[in-house]
Amino acid sequence: MRPTKLQIDKKAQTFNIVWDNGEEKSIDWKSLRERCPCATCREERDKAADQPMNSLDIFTLKPMTSDDLDRIEIVGNYAARLIWGDGHKSGIYGWTLLRDF
Q1: What would you measure as the largest C-alpha separation in the chain, in angstroms?
Q2: Which of 31, 41, 83, 85 is an S-S bond match for 68, by CB 3.0 to 4.6 Å?
Q3: CA-based nearest residue to 3, from 101, 97, 95
Q4: How far is it, in rounded angstroms, from Cα 46 to Cα 93?
């Protein structure tokens, strides 16, 4: 499956996808950012997972605001790059990853 429409809903803070089979999916920004597939974010998640848990060791992201997801860029025929308000733009979200949310 491939998307036929990608849309940012700033009010609801969701990333909305319409797939070529007509299925629609809405993914909240917090979930997208927490599962960013870039190497830096994966490394940070791995480091946090290896640390003993206490109240100070929780991996957190910058607070979300209504304009944190600025835009979407299509990457070839297989993915979308999400450009965040804080400048983060190295995460490339493949269609398979987005379907699995």
Answers
A1: 45
A2: 85
A3: 95
A4: 19
3-state secondary structure 7-66: EEECCCCEEEEEECCCCEEEEEHHHHHHCCCCHHHHHHHHHHHHCCCCCCCCCCCCCCCC
- Structural domains for the chain: 3-99 (3.30.2020.30)
Q: What three-state secondary structure class fits 85?
A: coil
Whole-prediction pTM value?
0.81
pLDDT tens digits for 19-51?
999 999 999 999 999 999 999 999 988 888 777
Dist CA 7 CA 50 (whole Å): 36
Percent of the chain scoring above 70 in pLDDT: 84
